[in-house]
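Example record

One chain of 376 residues, shown exactly as stored in the release files.
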Amino acid sequence: MPPARGKPAAAPADSTQSFSLRLFGAGLASAELMTCYLGLELGLYEALRRTGPATAAQVAEDGDLDARMVREWLEQQTCAGVLTVDAPEAPPADRRFTLPPAHAEALLDSDSPNWIAPLVVMPIGGMAAVLPQLVDAYRGRRGLSYAAYGEALRGGQAGLNQGVFTHHLPGWIGRHLPDIDARLRVPGSSIADVACGSGLSTLALARMFPDAEVHGLDLDEASIRDAEANLAAADPAEGLGERVRFHAGDAAEAGDGAAAVHTLVCVFDALHDMSAPVDVLQACRRLLAPGGAVLLMEPSVGERFTPAAPDSERFHYAVSVLHCLPVGMSRTPSAATGTVMRPDTVRRYAAEAGLDTRVIDVGHPFHRLYRLTARP
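Predicted structure tokens for this chain:
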């Protein structure tokens, strides 16, 4: 039976039209993500939360912006389902726009487990900004340094994991590393946070274990400056300044000449970015106190490659192409690992470093833990 008049027949799933429509959807989502980036960077979402239902002129006045440009953004955000509007049939200047509370939480509340703003900032402000450099890096068969991605990438990457460090990591350590948890609650215990980035993981560890000293280390000096700023901004009543220290340096050289005093050595969401992961794990081993453990948090990806990958693995692959693999290849020689570091790769790296591996499935769609212990 022919299709009804005015209603096109559905395209086969493997047709050119179907693929074109799929990429149109991806392009639309990318463009809308950019408009969300504008809303965050210009403070438009914050303004709407402060004002409640507001006209374009009111929102523009709050941010000292052009009312016509703001109106276009407000209407676009409403069509995208981010905002709502009262009386859409009213004259443009009279329409009042609202940011729903649930959307405000996801976009603006960094303490919420549903905070998604970093996923807006990181690809648009960080990765898209370096695409011309990335094209040159691919053509030149070389990587691209972490520093090239700038502040937006650093902030977005830190923010993506902030909720994990705050809401999940304490329970994960308590349930899956109970012996280490107990030892870290004894005065004088110590933790090393290798590749600490902006220091959010370091500060989270210090809050989890108020009797422990925590030492954050990162190769990127800008990240260490961010970490020190985050430490300075912490509530003085927490006393973190007395127990947390940050240092810029190469993780592969950590432990050279240093005492092996750390009950726990952490590498969170970073080993796959490193050019010399085995050297880093060997350094972590040197830092361990007797009976201590190295704790890795890495992407939760399948045991082997499959074209029918879940969305989480598709995300990891995209991030690897745009960021993690080029960063890992920016120094030579490089293991060229990439974000999709499968468990067998971790086991191999750990074995080469003299460490045994226990894989810990924490049930998270994006993260998996690995407990590494020194071989006798």
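Notes: The first strand starts at residue 84 and ends at 86.
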